[in-house]
Amino acid sequence: MNKQTIREQARFHRDKMLIDQLDFERVINIFFQYYPIQKDDVIALYWPVGREFDSRFLTDELLNRGYTCALPCVEKDNRVLTFKTWKHDEPLNKGAYGIKEPTDGEIVEPSVIIAPLLAFDRYGYRMGQGGGYYDATIAHYREKGNVIAIGLGFAQQAVLFNLPVEEHDQRMDYILTPEQLIDHRKID
Predict the structure, then answer these.
(1) Which residues 6+ apart lie within 8 Å of 133 measured at CB?
(2) Cβ distance 100 to 94 under 8 Å?
(3) Domain assignment of residue 25, given as a range
(4) Residue 98 falls within a domain, yes or no?
(5) What crossing angle do the helices spanning 22-34 and 56-64 adopt, rounded to 10°?
(6) What is the per-residue pLDDT across 136-162, written as a single tens digit (0 to 9) for each?
(7) 25, part of any domain
(8) What count of other Cβ atoms lies within 10 Å of the Cβ of residue 18?
(9) What is the rounded distance in angstroms from the CA atom of residue 139 to the CA atom of residue 149?
(10) How far from 35 is each of 51, 93, 167, CA to CA, in Å?
């Protein structure tokens, strides 16, 4: 099965899932219980589009606890995302692809990147929307130094087969679901 077919099936599956509002609280609890977050971490999250796992609840909790959060901005002709700090009630504008981006905010380099996903496999590979932005961004920050990549989604988005992986695809360090935080850093 090719990537486009898997992506279409994963999108169809995700869009039909019933969402339990408690899942968002469960993700917060699991993240803070099992992820070794540091006070000086800069956490890059995303503003959800469509039926992506709603990261805004986790963002709110991180901000309430005093962490620095940032949202991605797409620059024309560049696959590497730029991240700008964002706080509650600061303005957002629609950027490329209609995705909300901070209007103001300081450009920062994240130490943790939380990325949306359509599907993920047992090795920590995620399938996104197909633009390659997160793969390029994670590769960029890994070349510069230490960054942790976390895929965020529902457990039902796991696939029982290995996703097709190309050279540019980046494996997540963790996958975060309402049920667990899966550590993929030592899996080969």
Answers:
(1) 72, 74, 79, 80, 81
(2) yes
(3) 3-183
(4) yes
(5) 50
(6) 999 999 999 889 999 999 999 999 998
(7) yes
(8) 5
(9) 10
(10) 25, 31, 28
Answer whether residue 188 is part of any domain: no
Closest CA to 23 of 159, 180, 150: 180
Whichever domain contains 82, its CATH number is: 3.40.50.10420
Q: Is 179 in a helix, a strand, or coil?
A: coil
Q: How confident is the model at residue 111 (pLDDT cuts 50, 70, 90)?
A: very high
| Mean pLDDT computed over 158-177 | 93
Contact criterion met (CB below 8 Å) for 155 and 179: yes
| CA dihedral of residues 169, 8, 48, 143 (deg, nearest 10) | 10
Mean pLDDT of 87-92: 92
CB within 8 Å of 117: residues ≥ 6 apart? 53, 126, 127, 128, 151, 152, 153, 157, 175
Q: How many domains does the chain have?
A: 1
Amino acid at 95: G
Residue type present at position 37: I
Q: Is the pTM of this model over 0.85?
A: yes
Helix (H) or strand (E) holding 64: helix 56-64
Place of tokens 């006070």: 39
How far is it, in rounded angstroms, from Cα 109 to Cα 42?
Answer: 7
- Provide the token pair at 141: 């920050």
- Asked if residue 137 is part of any domain, the answer here is yes
